[in-house]
């Protein structure tokens, strides 16, 4: 009876292979060992029965170090069989998503990371490359039989290995071109843990076509082949295994009782809905189990029974992995997720790029540390890092001291548990605004510089019982916008800060016919419009209303916000949903998704050219745009953060509920005179993301990656990330991560983690009646198009960052200038560059040791000299300024202390040049 049933199963598999590739050869691989050991299946049943007799209640995270053995035929890395490290990291990420229950099912508490050392202590990147034949034929016997596996071929494949990675401590995974009797029909196969006659043959073999996500197949294109095959390596059988419909689920079929039995592999009832028939001919989701043969899009879960089986198999057959004995010497790159104190580097699953720091919540605050999502929402400036833990209901404030972020204070707030990455948290200088939908409040915290403590300054609560105020908040200048959580009220409550720093109710704002709080997943605030109405210059907000319509909110001359215009984006199809938007100096970017009723969405980017000094005009009439497909993405609606950097790079994701990885794109036409940027995908893999809230911030050259599931915040240097992609140092240092270019007056005091900050150049920036504090590391450039008008006080400061592990610095001094100009002429601060008017100003010696410096103009006569130090303009006596002639001046600064000074040189043609001088 058993033989008859097995024969039927093979026929079904062969029939299925005509429409789809054979999913795996693991059953056929096991059949070869049955010829050697006829009792192997019965022995396995005995082992499984022993598992049932004793419980394994351990739920520790098991870390499995992985070694990829890449067999190629001379292709360059990244081409053909010679898989790139990026592709391998993508596969590792998919494994961790799947085994963490990210697509559904249970979290197996099994993680995979590339090995960092072999057993001898030698460092490795976890990828070994070998030159081999063009393909390996797994077919067996003569004539060739595609339904049998050649153990001779298996031995050939697995001979490509290094001795430092024994199978009792590592998962060895081989990638190459495998064929069955010359045909490309097999995806891969695996050994089973209970096959013990030759440990050198232990491991997984996968056809290189199906590693990670690819366009090589429309069926097996999401990296689930490795998930399936490693399931075999961990001791799982197919859910349609021999006698899967038996009434004795403990000993027949896959010998796991909570997996539904199915009569045959991938027995669909509705392919589009990923549904199939079980043994009782009922329609269920049984085929979505990773151990069926459904297409990748449908494979979503392991069961609790499968989790128990895999962990038990590891404990019995691979105890050195199960008991973490192999990790004591730092073999793998992640040694488990364990809490630490704020600012203390610790464990976690990190690969591809190494963080310069990992930040953890203080465990002593938590009654149940496991029930937390620290890092699910973050904000950063030059001094503070703010984190929300919406599960444990904490607002945590970390202060930067040197190169470490240390916990400063914490506040208990009742958060809505599913707060997403772009809701309800603002950090503005020394002010924190945080909203609590569930608590119906908005909290405003201020920092007291005298007491060096944060305190609750104000609480805003709506008195109406019909709505809540804490759904989301955003700010513009002194206005605070608070979104209602009620669909019915359709209200944004607007508050304005008074002279005492308190927010007073200003007005209610609504748009008839639109539900603002639920139609808009993210609000792009623009403060760039220069549309004059007489002498009045209104602020503007760009606000999404529906998938295809956007409103522009303006502040009227009687200080009231109103909807000045509704813009129809008719080029966006109705089936696409708006996700988020971002603004650069040249373009408005819109991200949309098209949902096909599955867990994956098609993601599109719309690029719209704009004029920053006339945003409304750019969005009227026929709107020029370019649409680009990005990729299929998991639950993209919740991965709602987009950041664009100088139209050179952009980052999208992650976010809540499935934003598991970053999408990173670079502009292949950067620096060229083109109408639209051309984006090329350059994925970055930084973390083992789980199905929890995640967030990220980029501040200067630092990427802060908050991973709520892993309960930590990793800090990366963008140089490490970009150099790992192959970009040169010059290209990286010219990016906005290191040279920030601004076409607007900053909303608040701004301190950049950047080498250089530039205002103006190809756009107009006017400081008019404002007080600003702007700093950078090496230089601040005020180029033509920049004006500082009378009544404005702008402090430009060069700040040294002392922590080389986060920001490298060779600058040892600070310099600043207080500027209160008497006219509106452009000021050009250009360090290390010649004057833009081709009239070089030479200052020598630099540095000076005796305080004497000399200024020489090549072409135009000098009219006046003004010197600035930290406190502002210096009053120089007549004998300290010695005009040798109209083009040369000697300056005696010997009575002034050592440090950096700024010298403003006025020319007779009304141009001015500001340069730096150093007294040592």
How would you portray this structure in words?
By secondary structure, the protein is mainly beta. Among the domains are: 24-240 and 301-327, 3-Layer(aba) Sandwich (Collagenase (Catalytic Domain)); 739-919, no CATH class. 12% of the residues lie in helices and 33% in strands. The strands form 16 sheets. Strands 1, 2, 3, 7, 9 and 10 form a 6-stranded mixed beta sheet that branches. The longest helix has 15 residues, at 2-16. The chain starts with a helix and ends with a strand. Residues 1-21, 325-329, 335-351, 519-523, 527-536 and 802-838 have low confidence and may be disordered.
Record the SSE blueprint.
Elements lengths: L1 H15 L9 H11 L3 H14 L8 E11 L12 H15 L10 E5 L12 E5 L4 E2 L1 E2 L4 E5 L1 H8 L12 E6 L1 E2 L8 E3 L13 E4 L16 H10 L34 E3 L4 E3 L5 E2 L19 H14 L1 H4 L34 E3 L17 E4 L3 E6 L4 E8 L2 E9 L12 E4 L2 E6 L4 E8 L4 E9 L10 E5 L2 E5 L8 E6 L5 E7 L6 H4 L20 E5 L4 E7 L5 E8 L7 E8 L3 E9 L4 E10 L5 H4 L7 E9 L7 E4 L3 E4 L10 E5 L11 E3 L12 E6 L2 E6 L4 E6 H7 L4 H5 L5 E4 L7 E2 L4 E4 L5 E3 L3 E6 L2 E4 L3 E3 L4 E6 L16 E5 L21 E4 L7 E6 L4 E8 L2 E2 L7 E5 L2 E5 L6 E9 L4 E8 L1
Parallel strand pairs: 1-2, 1-3, 1-7, 4-8, 7-10, 41-43, 42-45, 43-46, 44-47, 45-48
Antiparallel strand pairs: 5-6, 9-10, 11-12, 12-13, 14-40, 15-16, 16-17, 17-18, 19-20, 20-21, 21-22, 23-24, 24-25, 25-26, 27-28, 28-29, 30-31, 31-32, 32-33, 34-35, 35-36, 36-37, 38-39, 39-40, 48-49, 50-51, 51-55, 52-53, 52-56, 54-55, 56-57
